[in-house]
Amino acid sequence: MNEENKMDIWDRIMQLPILRIFEPLYARNKEILLYLFFGGITVILSVSIYAFQTQCMKVNELIANAIAWIICVIFQFFTNRIWVFQSTASSGKSCFRQMIEFTGGRLITLILEEIILAVFITWLSWNSLAVKLAAQIIVIVLNYIISKLVVFHE
What we know:
mainly alpha
């Protein structure tokens, strides 16, 4: 297999003429850049689902957050496994173990996020979307650490 066939979609995108100037930065920081890219998409997805439920459907903030979390964890697992951490685990057992560890780590940060929402929205009546966004920043950092050190370590 030649080097061209080994390149993933993101490496190929970075070969586009307009993006080649960023290639050295990308090559040194690929994992963190892809994590931030997919993390950004996840934040947009999570906040959108949350806002739609709380603003349009009048769903309780904690329930809306839990529903958004479920959808986002599924999205995150596959993007993190395939592109960010490029997991080489191929057996069903090892993939299942990664999924369980990934979900377990995300459950820990969900509990933390739910506590943040309960304290600042429910008890202190702060702006719901502002608190949700701030909580997402904390969660993204913790999720990266858990994924890097526990779930997708080789």
